[in-house]
Amino acid sequence: MVNLQKGQNISLEKVAPGLNKLHIGLGWDTNKYEGGNDFDLDAMCFLIGDDGKIAGGNDKNFVFFNNKKDPSGAVIHSGDNLTGAGEGDDEVINVDLSKIADGIEKIVFIAIIFKGEERKQNFGQIMNAYIRVVNQSNDEELIRYDLSEDYSIETSVEIAELYKRNGVWKFKAIGGGTKKTLDDIVSEYGIK
Q1: Spatial contact of 54 and 48, defined as CB atoms under 8 Å apart
Q2: pTM score > 0.90 for this model?
Q3: Distance (Å, rounded) from C-alpha 161 to C-alpha 151?
Q4: Residue 31's CATH number
Q5: Can you say how many angstroms the Cα of residue 133 is from the centroid of all Cα atoms in its chain?
Q6: Quick check: 43 and 107 in contact, CB under 8 A?
Q7: Under DSSP, is residue 67 helix (H, G, I), strand (E, B) or coil?
Q8: Which end of the chain has fewer CB atoms < 10 Å from its terminal CB, N or C?
């Protein structure tokens, strides 16, 4: 298994030649928190074209708990985990690279705290957050990125991305935290 640090990337061909079916697992725990509300983190991804916007201008290329798969069926969200309680992955997005539609150059994975601003919650109150890439065919964990950055006010994090370079898919650890709302994020990617 390869452990990535923020900003690092690796070719999927290097870690598992011929890999197509990926289990992208995201997990987190909450620190002791007295705010009265559960933390509800939402994992989502955007299928991006070469212009840096949602592929084909189609908002169905935004995959999250209310739109669990893209039009090609290549990217499927497991559903919303409302608490993050328990061991293992809290939310899963499965990706079949062999089904990715032409024109999609990147898949960006983001986690956002539902009503984070309103509930006065932020990623500084989250611990043990990670994203991992698992080979669906044998359940082998191939790549892991632990978000060890010391966040304080951020309510959303662009965690990682899968991107295609010269026909080869790569995985990059990003870990960029912001205070952007879901509306801010979707409009940045060209969804109206």
Answers
A1: yes
A2: yes
A3: 20
A4: 2.60.60.30
A5: 11
A6: no
A7: strand
A8: C
Q: Cα separation of 1 and 143, whole Å?
A: 6
Model pLDDT, residue 35: 63
Is the pLDDT score of 82 beyond 70? no
Phi, psi of 41 (to 5 degrees): -90, 140
Are 21 and 76 a contacting pair, CB within 8 Å? no
Is the pLDDT assigned to residue 86 strictly greater than 70? no
* Domain housing 89: 2-188
- Residue 176: its pLDDT value, please? 93
Domain tally, the chain: 1
Q: Which residues contact 183 (CB under 8 A, 6 or more apart)?
A: none
Q: Distance between CA atoms of 126 and 129, rounded to whole angstroms?
A: 7
State whether the Cα torsion 122-128-131-136 is positive or negative.
Answer: negative
118: number of CA atoms within 13 Å, CB side?
Answer: 10
